[in-house]
Design brief:
This protein is an alpha/beta fold and 310 residues long. The protein has 10 helices and 8 strands. It has an 8-stranded parallel β-barrel with strand order 1-2-3-4-5-6-7-8.
Length: 310
Protein backbone atom coordinates (compact mmCIF):
# COMPACT_ATOMS: atom_id res chain seq x y z
CA UNK A 1 0.00 0.00 0.00
CA UNK A 2 1.38 3.44 -0.84
CA UNK A 3 2.34 5.45 2.23
CA UNK A 4 0.52 8.39 0.68
CA UNK A 5 -1.44 9.02 -2.48
CA UNK A 6 -3.48 6.77 -4.72
CA UNK A 7 -2.10 4.26 -7.23
CA UNK A 8 -3.14 5.03 -10.82
CA UNK A 9 -3.62 2.09 -13.16
CA UNK A 10 -5.34 0.61 -16.18
CA UNK A 11 -6.60 -2.49 -17.91
CA UNK A 12 -5.89 -1.25 -21.43
CA UNK A 13 -7.40 -2.41 -24.71
CA UNK A 14 -10.02 -4.56 -23.00
CA UNK A 15 -12.16 -6.66 -25.36
CA UNK A 16 -9.83 -5.87 -28.27
CA UNK A 17 -7.00 -7.69 -30.01
CA UNK A 18 -4.52 -5.05 -28.84
CA UNK A 19 -4.42 -6.04 -25.18
CA UNK A 20 -1.07 -6.12 -23.45
CA UNK A 21 2.11 -4.18 -24.05
CA UNK A 22 0.92 -2.46 -27.22
CA UNK A 23 -2.32 -1.29 -25.65
CA UNK A 24 -0.52 -0.09 -22.53
CA UNK A 25 2.00 1.92 -24.55
CA UNK A 26 -0.80 3.50 -26.55
CA UNK A 27 -2.78 4.34 -23.41
CA UNK A 28 0.21 5.91 -21.68
CA UNK A 29 1.05 7.95 -24.76
CA UNK A 30 -2.43 9.39 -25.18
CA UNK A 31 -2.95 10.05 -21.46
CA UNK A 32 0.54 11.52 -21.07
CA UNK A 33 1.52 9.62 -17.97
CA UNK A 34 2.97 6.39 -16.66
CA UNK A 35 0.58 3.82 -15.16
CA UNK A 36 1.44 2.55 -11.69
CA UNK A 37 -0.63 -0.63 -12.02
CA UNK A 38 -1.21 -2.89 -15.02
CA UNK A 39 -4.33 -5.08 -14.75
CA UNK A 40 -4.44 -8.35 -16.71
CA UNK A 41 -6.90 -11.23 -16.80
CA UNK A 42 -6.32 -15.00 -16.89
CA UNK A 43 -8.67 -17.95 -16.94
CA UNK A 44 -8.44 -21.71 -16.53
CA UNK A 45 -5.45 -23.99 -16.21
CA UNK A 46 -3.59 -23.61 -19.49
CA UNK A 47 -1.60 -20.39 -19.11
CA UNK A 48 0.85 -19.68 -16.30
CA UNK A 49 1.29 -16.10 -15.18
CA UNK A 50 2.76 -13.61 -15.03
CA UNK A 51 3.51 -14.12 -18.70
CA UNK A 52 6.81 -13.09 -20.26
CA UNK A 53 5.16 -9.93 -21.58
CA UNK A 54 3.66 -9.07 -18.20
CA UNK A 55 7.06 -9.46 -16.56
CA UNK A 56 8.52 -7.08 -19.15
CA UNK A 57 5.76 -4.58 -18.37
CA UNK A 58 6.49 -4.79 -14.64
CA UNK A 59 10.24 -4.40 -15.09
CA UNK A 60 10.49 -1.80 -17.86
CA UNK A 61 13.58 0.22 -16.82
CA UNK A 62 12.62 3.55 -15.35
CA UNK A 63 8.92 2.78 -15.85
CA UNK A 64 8.38 -0.06 -13.38
CA UNK A 65 4.80 -1.07 -12.70
CA UNK A 66 2.86 -3.22 -10.25
CA UNK A 67 1.06 -6.15 -11.83
CA UNK A 68 -2.55 -6.85 -10.92
CA UNK A 69 -3.22 -10.42 -12.07
CA UNK A 70 -6.78 -11.63 -12.15
CA UNK A 71 -7.42 -15.40 -12.28
CA UNK A 72 -10.75 -17.11 -12.87
CA UNK A 73 -10.69 -20.88 -12.32
CA UNK A 74 -12.65 -23.20 -14.60
CA UNK A 75 -13.39 -26.89 -15.01
CA UNK A 76 -14.53 -27.41 -11.41
CA UNK A 77 -17.05 -25.86 -9.05
CA UNK A 78 -15.96 -23.63 -6.18
CA UNK A 79 -16.81 -26.40 -3.75
CA UNK A 80 -14.75 -28.94 -5.71
CA UNK A 81 -11.74 -26.62 -5.80
CA UNK A 82 -12.00 -26.01 -2.05
CA UNK A 83 -12.16 -29.77 -1.57
CA UNK A 84 -8.90 -30.33 -3.48
CA UNK A 85 -9.82 -30.79 -7.16
CA UNK A 86 -6.82 -32.63 -8.64
CA UNK A 87 -6.62 -30.70 -11.92
CA UNK A 88 -6.81 -27.35 -10.16
CA UNK A 89 -4.26 -28.44 -7.54
CA UNK A 90 -1.86 -29.51 -10.28
CA UNK A 91 -2.19 -26.12 -11.96
CA UNK A 92 -1.75 -24.19 -8.70
CA UNK A 93 1.39 -26.13 -7.89
CA UNK A 94 2.83 -25.42 -11.34
CA UNK A 95 1.80 -21.77 -10.97
CA UNK A 96 3.58 -21.52 -7.63
CA UNK A 97 6.74 -23.01 -9.13
CA UNK A 98 6.53 -20.57 -12.05
CA UNK A 99 6.08 -17.52 -9.82
CA UNK A 100 8.85 -18.56 -7.44
CA UNK A 101 11.25 -19.07 -10.32
CA UNK A 102 10.39 -16.05 -12.47
CA UNK A 103 8.78 -13.26 -10.46
CA UNK A 104 9.77 -12.51 -6.86
CA UNK A 105 8.30 -8.98 -6.90
CA UNK A 106 5.08 -8.28 -5.05
CA UNK A 107 1.94 -8.15 -7.19
CA UNK A 108 -1.79 -7.77 -6.73
CA UNK A 109 -3.74 -11.00 -7.17
CA UNK A 110 -7.43 -11.83 -7.17
CA UNK A 111 -9.42 -15.03 -7.63
CA UNK A 112 -12.61 -14.91 -9.70
CA UNK A 113 -13.53 -11.24 -9.62
CA UNK A 114 -17.21 -10.26 -9.67
CA UNK A 115 -18.20 -13.72 -8.49
CA UNK A 116 -21.62 -12.53 -7.32
CA UNK A 117 -22.98 -13.17 -10.81
CA UNK A 118 -22.24 -16.88 -10.37
CA UNK A 119 -23.59 -17.45 -6.88
CA UNK A 120 -26.26 -20.16 -6.70
CA UNK A 121 -27.64 -20.29 -3.18
CA UNK A 122 -28.87 -23.85 -3.38
CA UNK A 123 -27.38 -26.55 -1.20
CA UNK A 124 -25.13 -28.80 -3.24
CA UNK A 125 -24.82 -26.38 -6.18
CA UNK A 126 -21.10 -25.96 -5.56
CA UNK A 127 -21.52 -22.24 -6.10
CA UNK A 128 -22.91 -20.87 -2.85
CA UNK A 129 -21.41 -17.73 -1.32
CA UNK A 130 -19.73 -19.89 1.32
CA UNK A 131 -18.32 -22.13 -1.41
CA UNK A 132 -16.75 -19.07 -2.99
CA UNK A 133 -15.15 -18.00 0.28
CA UNK A 134 -13.77 -21.51 0.82
CA UNK A 135 -12.43 -21.68 -2.73
CA UNK A 136 -10.74 -18.28 -2.50
CA UNK A 137 -9.13 -19.19 0.81
CA UNK A 138 -7.98 -22.57 -0.50
CA UNK A 139 -6.31 -21.09 -3.58
CA UNK A 140 -4.43 -18.43 -1.63
CA UNK A 141 -3.32 -20.80 1.13
CA UNK A 142 -2.12 -23.44 -1.35
CA UNK A 143 -0.01 -20.90 -3.24
CA UNK A 144 1.43 -19.55 0.00
CA UNK A 145 2.15 -23.06 1.23
CA UNK A 146 4.32 -23.51 -1.85
CA UNK A 147 6.35 -20.42 -1.01
CA UNK A 148 4.47 -17.75 -2.96
CA UNK A 149 4.70 -15.01 -0.36
CA UNK A 150 4.62 -12.09 -2.79
CA UNK A 151 0.85 -12.17 -3.36
CA UNK A 152 -0.99 -9.02 -2.30
CA UNK A 153 -4.50 -10.40 -2.41
CA UNK A 154 -7.52 -8.38 -3.48
CA UNK A 155 -11.10 -9.56 -2.98
CA UNK A 156 -12.92 -7.98 -5.93
CA UNK A 157 -16.68 -7.54 -5.68
CA UNK A 158 -19.20 -6.30 -8.21
CA UNK A 159 -20.62 -3.20 -6.54
CA UNK A 160 -24.14 -3.93 -7.77
CA UNK A 161 -26.85 -3.28 -5.19
CA UNK A 162 -29.10 -6.25 -6.14
CA UNK A 163 -26.13 -8.46 -5.21
CA UNK A 164 -24.60 -6.56 -2.29
CA UNK A 165 -27.96 -6.39 -0.50
CA UNK A 166 -28.51 -10.17 -0.62
CA UNK A 167 -28.50 -12.08 2.67
CA UNK A 168 -25.63 -14.24 1.39
CA UNK A 169 -23.35 -11.38 0.30
CA UNK A 170 -21.20 -11.24 3.44
CA UNK A 171 -20.80 -15.03 3.37
CA UNK A 172 -18.46 -14.51 0.40
CA UNK A 173 -15.74 -13.09 2.63
CA UNK A 174 -12.90 -15.65 2.96
CA UNK A 175 -11.27 -14.08 6.02
CA UNK A 176 -8.78 -11.40 6.95
CA UNK A 177 -5.87 -13.83 6.77
CA UNK A 178 -6.23 -14.27 3.00
CA UNK A 179 -7.54 -10.82 2.03
CA UNK A 180 -5.10 -7.90 1.97
CA UNK A 181 -7.19 -5.38 0.01
CA UNK A 182 -10.88 -5.13 -0.82
CA UNK A 183 -11.68 -4.14 -4.38
CA UNK A 184 -14.84 -3.34 -6.26
CA UNK A 185 -15.81 -2.80 -9.89
CA UNK A 186 -18.16 0.08 -10.60
CA UNK A 187 -19.01 2.23 -13.61
CA UNK A 188 -20.73 5.55 -14.27
CA UNK A 189 -23.24 6.05 -17.07
CA UNK A 190 -23.44 9.22 -19.14
CA UNK A 191 -27.08 8.54 -20.01
CA UNK A 192 -29.52 9.72 -17.32
CA UNK A 193 -30.93 6.92 -15.20
CA UNK A 194 -29.13 4.10 -13.43
CA UNK A 195 -25.54 4.98 -12.52
CA UNK A 196 -25.76 8.57 -13.71
CA UNK A 197 -24.09 10.83 -11.20
CA UNK A 198 -20.76 11.98 -9.83
CA UNK A 199 -17.79 10.15 -8.30
CA UNK A 200 -19.41 9.98 -4.88
CA UNK A 201 -22.41 8.23 -6.42
CA UNK A 202 -20.08 5.79 -8.18
CA UNK A 203 -18.44 4.76 -4.90
CA UNK A 204 -21.62 4.67 -2.82
CA UNK A 205 -24.31 3.69 -5.31
CA UNK A 206 -27.64 3.01 -3.63
CA UNK A 207 -31.12 1.90 -4.68
CA UNK A 208 -34.48 3.24 -3.57
CA UNK A 209 -35.84 -0.29 -3.14
CA UNK A 210 -32.89 -1.27 -0.89
CA UNK A 211 -32.85 1.55 1.69
CA UNK A 212 -30.65 -0.33 4.15
CA UNK A 213 -27.69 -0.60 1.76
CA UNK A 214 -25.29 2.26 2.65
CA UNK A 215 -23.19 2.17 -0.53
CA UNK A 216 -20.13 0.03 -1.15
CA UNK A 217 -17.48 2.44 0.16
CA UNK A 218 -19.46 3.06 3.34
CA UNK A 219 -20.10 -0.65 3.81
CA UNK A 220 -16.48 -1.66 3.27
CA UNK A 221 -15.00 0.97 5.56
CA UNK A 222 -17.42 0.04 8.36
CA UNK A 223 -17.25 -3.73 7.92
CA UNK A 224 -13.50 -3.98 7.18
CA UNK A 225 -11.92 -0.79 8.57
CA UNK A 226 -8.40 -2.20 8.46
CA UNK A 227 -8.39 -2.98 4.74
CA UNK A 228 -7.28 -0.56 2.02
CA UNK A 229 -9.74 -0.24 -0.85
CA UNK A 230 -9.16 -0.48 -4.58
CA UNK A 231 -11.53 0.48 -7.37
CA UNK A 232 -10.38 -2.50 -9.41
CA UNK A 233 -12.36 -1.48 -12.50
CA UNK A 234 -13.94 1.87 -13.18
CA UNK A 235 -14.87 4.01 -16.11
CA UNK A 236 -17.61 6.09 -17.65
CA UNK A 237 -19.82 4.54 -20.31
CA UNK A 238 -20.13 7.10 -23.10
CA UNK A 239 -23.32 8.59 -24.45
CA UNK A 240 -23.82 10.22 -27.84
CA UNK A 241 -26.77 12.09 -26.31
CA UNK A 242 -24.68 13.51 -23.45
CA UNK A 243 -21.04 13.58 -24.64
CA UNK A 244 -20.00 16.28 -22.15
CA UNK A 245 -20.72 14.11 -19.11
CA UNK A 246 -17.54 12.03 -19.28
CA UNK A 247 -15.22 15.03 -19.06
CA UNK A 248 -17.24 16.51 -16.22
CA UNK A 249 -17.15 13.20 -14.38
CA UNK A 250 -13.34 13.12 -14.53
CA UNK A 251 -13.28 16.65 -13.11
CA UNK A 252 -15.55 15.48 -10.28
CA UNK A 253 -13.13 12.66 -9.46
CA UNK A 254 -10.42 15.25 -8.90
CA UNK A 255 -12.66 17.35 -6.70
CA UNK A 256 -13.99 14.45 -4.62
CA UNK A 257 -11.23 11.84 -4.28
CA UNK A 258 -9.98 13.46 -1.05
CA UNK A 259 -13.30 12.63 0.63
CA UNK A 260 -12.57 8.90 0.35
CA UNK A 261 -9.23 8.29 2.08
CA UNK A 262 -9.57 4.50 2.12
CA UNK A 263 -9.34 4.41 -1.69
CA UNK A 264 -5.67 3.69 -2.37
CA UNK A 265 -5.84 2.57 -6.02
CA UNK A 266 -7.96 3.48 -9.06
CA UNK A 267 -7.70 1.07 -12.02
CA UNK A 268 -9.40 2.26 -15.19
CA UNK A 269 -11.01 -0.33 -17.46
CA UNK A 270 -10.44 1.07 -20.93
CA UNK A 271 -12.36 -0.37 -23.86
CA UNK A 272 -14.03 1.00 -27.01
CA UNK A 273 -16.72 -1.65 -26.55
CA UNK A 274 -17.69 -4.08 -23.82
CA UNK A 275 -19.95 -7.12 -24.25
CA UNK A 276 -22.90 -4.77 -24.68
CA UNK A 277 -21.12 -2.34 -26.99
CA UNK A 278 -20.54 0.37 -24.38
CA UNK A 279 -17.48 2.60 -24.70
CA UNK A 280 -15.39 3.48 -21.62
CA UNK A 281 -12.36 4.84 -23.51
CA UNK A 282 -10.93 7.99 -21.98
CA UNK A 283 -10.51 9.60 -25.41
CA UNK A 284 -14.15 9.22 -26.46
CA UNK A 285 -14.11 12.99 -26.96
CA UNK A 286 -11.37 15.59 -27.10
CA UNK A 287 -12.64 17.13 -23.87
CA UNK A 288 -12.80 13.81 -22.02
CA UNK A 289 -9.19 13.03 -22.89
CA UNK A 290 -8.11 16.50 -21.83
CA UNK A 291 -9.92 16.10 -18.49
CA UNK A 292 -8.50 12.62 -17.90
CA UNK A 293 -4.96 13.85 -18.59
CA UNK A 294 -5.43 16.64 -16.09
CA UNK A 295 -6.88 14.23 -13.53
CA UNK A 296 -3.91 11.87 -13.79
CA UNK A 297 -1.50 14.74 -13.12
CA UNK A 298 -3.03 15.71 -9.77
CA UNK A 299 -0.61 15.39 -6.81
CA UNK A 300 -2.69 12.68 -5.10
CA UNK A 301 -2.00 10.30 -8.00
CA UNK A 302 1.78 10.81 -8.04
CA UNK A 303 3.05 7.64 -6.36
CA UNK A 304 6.60 6.36 -6.76
CA UNK A 305 6.57 2.78 -7.99
CA UNK A 306 9.55 0.50 -7.71
CA UNK A 307 9.95 -3.29 -7.68
CA UNK A 308 9.25 -4.57 -4.18
CA UNK A 309 10.37 -7.88 -2.72
CA UNK A 310 8.32 -9.50 0.08
Amino acid sequence: MPTCGVLWGVAPGAFTEKRGKQALASFEEKTERHQDVYHAYHKGTKQLFPTEQEIEIAREPGRERILFLNWKPSGATWAEIADGDKKTDKFLDKLAEHINKNFPEQFFFTVHHEAEDNVKEKKGSGYTASDYAAMYKYVVKRLRAHGVDNLVTVLVHMAYVPHTSKKWFEDMYPGDSVVDWIGFDTYAYSDPGYGHGDFAELLNRQASNKPDWPGFYNWATRKHPGKPLMVAEWGVWSSKKNPAHKAEFYREVGRQIGRFPKIRALIHFDTPHNQEGRDSSVDATHESLKAYRKLGKLPIFQVEVRPLLP
